[in-house]
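Weekly structure sync, notes
Attendees: PL (lead), two postdocs, one rotation student
Agenda item 3: pending single-chain targets
PL asked that the sequence for the first pending target be pasted directly into the notes so everyone works from the same version. It is reproduced below exactly as submitted, 87 residues in total.
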Amino acid sequence: MEIHFITIQVSAPTYWGFQYKVPLDYAISVTPESLAKETQTHMKNFFETHNLQELKDGVDLLNLHFHRAITPSDTVVYLCDHTEKNP
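Predicted structure, written out during the meeting:
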């Protein structure tokens, strides 16, 4: 059985374009909140691995969320930030 992946792309100043790929079946089976949190954790780990401490620290300031449910036909979904400074 072939595994289909979906790309979660962050839409936020400074972080725009950061991508995280997960199996589509998994993305559909978990809550949007847990998938957003998992993506934030992945971002922090990535930035720490590459010694980008300021970017890593900034991830905690993001208010990331999905605007709609993920569907089986999706290939890319956007994880948006709407913090006070990024309306």
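Discussion points:
- The first helix runs from residue 24 to 29.
- The two ends are 42 Å apart (CA to CA).
Action: rotation student to compare against the earlier draft before next sync.
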